[in-house]
Amino acid sequence: MDWQCTGLRWPEGSDGPALGWRKGARTRASVLAYGTEFGFRASGERRCSGARGNACPLGAVVPAGSTGGRCPECGRLDRAHSVAADTIPDDPRTYRVYLAWFGPGMVKVGITGEERGAARLREQGAVVFSWLGRGPLMAARRAEEVLRAALGVPDRIPYARKREVRAALPDPAERAGEVAELYGKAAALEGGGWPEALERLPFAAVDHAEVFGLGAMAVSGATARSGPVRAVAGLVDGGAVAGRLVAAAGPDLHLDAGPQGLVIVDTRLMTGWTLTAAGAGAAGVSVPTVVVGGGAAQDGLF
């Protein structure tokens, strides 16, 4: 049995991301550093990544372009135990409600377990966030629903939209200002706006731009050398991806692929593959790609 990639992780208290791996019951993580070379080659077929830390009993083959990376049965099992599914109303843990900013006009409200800290925000690629309150799950869930309606913000934002704006963000003050404005509106709600069981938390904008490496990416010149930014659409047997890691956000790795410019690898597409080193001197991308913000997959390979 080979090591399977389990995607990108943002451990609480760490200065950057790590790639997770699993081989049977064994797990490990590879810490990633910006400015270093990163590359791999896919081999064989993509297999279901399992659910809730368990391997898929069928070892099912899954589509290369699926960001879920699970067969239907494992997908149902994973969703059934998620907080979003509302199947665990008696969960005794403390939860936090937050506002997350991904780009101009792109703010969402959500909840996460308090013990996870800000890891959930980094996993979503939130550039800026602020806590709103803390309390029991159902109080946090009610506050999420009320605030979503009152502020006119969604509970999720398509990931493709987050990628489109990442290379040209406004300055930190403007980013924090948009979150502060919505926080003020949320704090001003009276009556049924805030459940009594939910403790309000003071505004404190946390900016992840440096943690993600986005400032360095903006001045690296990778986006200016060869036209539009591209994103990997899916891996193929024998396909390779290699470049210099300049940034990471959410599940995405941003690679400077030399003459090919900036290439984004959604690590959710890596799950379930057997990955090996790209090989000495490897550079560039030889798998299907899409232009970020450009719609359908391109026919050619990089």
List the helices and strands and how they pair.
Blueprint: E1 4-9, E2 18-23, E3 26-31, E4 37-43, H1 72-80, E5 94-103, E6 106-113, H2 119-124, E7 128-136, H3 137-151, H4 159-165, H5 172-187, E8 199-200, E9 206-207, H6 209-212, H7 214-220, E10 230-232, E11 240-249, E12 252-256, E13 262-266, E14 274-276, E15 284-285, E16 289-291
Parallel strand pairs: 10-13
Antiparallel strand pairs: 1-2, 2-3, 4-11, 4-14, 5-6, 5-7, 7-8, 7-9, 10-16, 11-12, 11-15, 12-13
Structure, described:
The protein has 302 residues and is an alpha+beta fold. The protein is built from seven helices and 16 strands. Strands 4, 10, 11, 12, 13, 14, 15 and 16 form an eight-stranded mixed sheet that branches. Strands 5, 6, 7, 8 and 9 form a five-stranded antiparallel sheet that branches. A three-stranded antiparallel sheet has the order 1-2-3, with no helix packed on it. A hairpin with a 2-residue loop joins strand 2 and strand 3. It is globular and about 60 Å long. The two termini are 30 Å apart.
Largest sheet: 8 strands, mixed
Number of helices: 7
**Share of helix, binned:** 10-25%
Structural class: alpha+beta
Strand portion:
25-35%
Based on CA atoms alone, the radius of gyration comes out at 20 Å
Report the strand count: 16
Low-confidence stretches: 296-302
Question: What is the H/E order?
Answer: EEEEHEEHEHHHEEHHEEEEEEE
Shape: globular
Distance between the termini: 30 Å
On the 0 to 100 scale, the average pLDDT is 86
